[in-house]
Predict the structure.
Amino acid sequence: MTFYEVITAAVRDISENGYDPIRVDLWLQKIEEAANRDLVSTDTLDRTLRASLETLYKRYVERGALLKYNPGVTRFSLDKVKPQLRAELDRRIMASAQLIKMNREEAIQKTLRRFAGWSTSIPQGGSEVVDKNEVKGDIKKSLKQLPFEERRVLIDQGHKFTSAISETLATDNGALAAVWHSNWRQRNYNYRKDHKERDQKVYAVRGNWAQSKGLMKVGPSGYVDEITKPAEEPFCRCHYEWVYNLRDLPDDMLTDKGRDELSKLKGGSR
């Protein structure tokens, strides 16, 4: 029988006969077996996950789309950090696979707990007032939502991966600051209020070369290490655009020495 057929038979049996520990244990075993049978295999999910993240790797690393978030960084610089970015890909694949596995196990256990909890409410001899459709709907809820949750995990892990490799590139190339970009204007996007408030704000990278030379200072928004990172929180789609040059910093993040340095550079270019 399919998972849904097993649930139907289990609810009917307990409704007609009432709670019995041995009977319930048998159904719990059948429900768990049917759930594992009917769900997409873990091997298939692993292949889907790997393919999804490797597609992102090709787009952002092999084809250079990561440079969009790192204006001023050259293709040569991106190629130099490929080993670190590839390592991040492998790490993200392992972490994502483990997360999907844990979510799946949790969904099955929730299903079993719902059935066991409901069955204890049925008196010996059964009950004629059980709304079987409602009971089945409640018991199946966790597994019914699982494919949707697994897709959300794939998407979320993709954002986390992109954010991580962008930060790796920025760190390796001496970024001075980062501009937060929120997608709060995107239709139907369930954005976080504090992330919306960060939109377009500039956060300094602590201890960067320009700060060490007294050319820049931390701005009113603070440092990148004082807030959560883009995509760090579940289902966050925000991203950083990294800043590498003094001329791209807001004026209130430049020191007098930094302004003098910029003036010299502009004079030299003229």
Notes: Residues 215 and 260 are 9 Å apart (CA to CA). The first helix runs from residue 3 to 17. The beta strands are 177-181, 202-204, 239-243. The chain has a mean pLDDT of 93.
